[in-house]
Write a structure and sequence with these properties.
Helix content: 55-70%
Number of domains: 3
Strand content: 5-15%
Mean pLDDT: 80
Radius of gyration: 25 Å
Low-confidence stretches: 13-60, 126-139
Amino acid sequence: MQQKNDALRTALFCAVMAAAVAGCASSPERAASYTDRNSSKSTPRYADVKSPEPVEADAEEGLSLEKGIAQIARALEAELPEKTSIAVVNFESPSARFSDYLLEELQAILVNNKRLVVVDRSNLEQRRDELNFQMSGEVSDESAISIGHWLGAQVIVTGGLTDLGTGYRCRFNAIDVKEAVRLVSPGVIIRKNDKTIAYMLPKETLAALPERVPAKPDPALATQYFNAGVAHYEAGRYAQAAADFTRALEIEADDEASLRYRAYAYNYLKDYDKALADASRLLQLKPDNVERYRTRGLAYADKGDYDRAIADYTEALRLKPDYALAYNNRGNAYAMKGDYDRAIADYNQAIRLNPALAQAYNNRGIAYKNKRDYDRAIADYTKAISLKPDYAAAYNNRGHAYADKRDYDRAIADYNQAIRLDPSDAYAYISRGYAYAMKENYARARADFEKALQLDPSNTTARNNLEALRDMGY
């Protein structure tokens, strides 16, 4: 009976790992080499931090958002004493996503110019309920000042967007935290048809557009195609999105917003060569843009060209040495090459620069697990969960580490949490089924493998696990 159970455990272990490695004959280091988010999820996933960054065309009336933000930054730098510590914390607009984007862009310019000392607000999001404010909502001067005290800033910066009909007024207020007075209130007018605003602010349902671009199109049609592409992109219709962005580019060649989002659409379609072509063109248009090196690095990494991904992340870090996300993603590329020591070194830098970056803790935990340092891996996964309590992948990964330590009860508890947070994840059921099998609870193992197959009928790992149980008489 014991030989039968041992044989079953070996068969199930091979089946569970088959999605990530060639088989049980691999060396321990390679057998624990886990895939990233685009591969099988039966093993811990590396979490690249990526999101599209819209870039707008030049203004016809008023300023583009990009130029407007730059002008606001120059005004703050001109009016505030050098080395003043400031925190950019709130912008009132109809869209939380737009507010966050604008705040991040303004903060990035101020950080890069190095005239003012920008206080890290990365922990602010996690404590906004405690501090009773929303980054995209209205915040009183009194609330802003209390936030400034908590962050240790001399000056707090808030702002808001007003629709003027023909354009948008974007105004900021710099408030002295100690004296509770407004020091400067720079403002700009942003053009109405700015592509970033058109994308991020709430908009009406788009009208039907011609499939072919007219011979002499109205320039406004480019914006309509762009908006249609964004709508398809957000709905996961990436082929239609790429087609609409291409139509927009037929009207406005080298439109940066359309190039940016078409690159991401191609990436989701796994048409990596086209994605890389768009990313490279964006870099030709702005060769000193650090975010675009990270974007192309992600495309190279998705294609499996980790050396070129590392080169792009390294260039981004040369331009911006305190770029935590670039360190995180370069660490992922090193990890995918099996160079876990360099990966850990990069994750350490990412965490030093942004202690609230949950993905970096999760990723470092995976690297430690690959080095069989399970206790450090568990500690990192636990930290990631404390920073992001709904982090299903971190629960799943910690479950794997407990399973490697043969602590199957704790592994199952973590898989339970992963399933609660993401009930559609077939591989979380497979992982829990494996843990149940190791505890010789084959009925529950079978139920989990069957559930995984129900969620994903083409999942060979779940199918192989069920066949292993049947072959052994369970």
